[in-house]
Amino acid sequence: MTDLTISVRALLLATLATVGVQGSPIDVASGANGITPCATVKCTSNTTCKVIDGKAQCVPILGVKCGNTVCEAGLTCCNPSCGMCVKPGMMCTQQVCEPTIAPQPVQCGKTLCPTGFVCCNSSCGVCTPPGGACTAQYCTDPV
Predict the structure, then answer these.
(1) CA-CA distance, 90 to 77, in Å (whole number)?
(2) pLDDT at position 43, please?
(3) Which residues contact 14 (CB under 8 A, 6 or more apart)?
(4) Burial bucket for residue 27 (CB in 10 Å: 0-12, 13-18, 19+)
(5) Fewer Cβ atoms within 10 A, N terminus or C terminus of the chain?
């Protein structure tokens, strides 16, 4: 019976070590010898170690705002004008991206085309989706 109990404990510890357990880390170093408390802590995925009140704490990694986007956990914003995120230390383009402008309605004769449509025949005031069929007629009295 004792051998079975030891085996179950060993199996449980091995499983917990392999899978990773989320919780408060144990402060082993306590800042001794210039070592930060986080130096001895391994946090689970999507968390990082932060020293809070002198103790190591595993906290969630939150997304970082990067221009018009939010970087995923573990990525950093390298070019806010383009909304580009990279892994820390990776190279990043230095280009400047123009801000995106929402499409505006288009005037087509006396008609105002809905957003996303184009004027295909201004004499008749006909709007279509981009690449849509359009008549080649000429209207003298636009609608």
Answers:
(1) 11
(2) 81
(3) none
(4) middle
(5) N
Q: Which amino acid belongs to residue 7?
A: S
Sequence spans of domains, the chain: 24-61, 63-97, 104-143
Q: Tell me, yes or no, if the pTM score tops 0.85.
A: no
Amino acid present at 126: V
SS (H, E, C) the chain: CHHHHHHHHHHHHHHHHHHCCCCCCCCCCCCHHHCCHHHHCCCCCCEEEEEECCEEEEEECCCEEECCEEECCCCEEEECCCCEEECCCCCCCCCCCCCCCCCCCEEECCEEECCCCEEEECCCCEEECCCCCCCCCCCCCCC
pLDDT one-digit tens code per residue, 79-129: 999 999 988 888 998 899 987 777 788 899 999 998 888 999 999 999 998
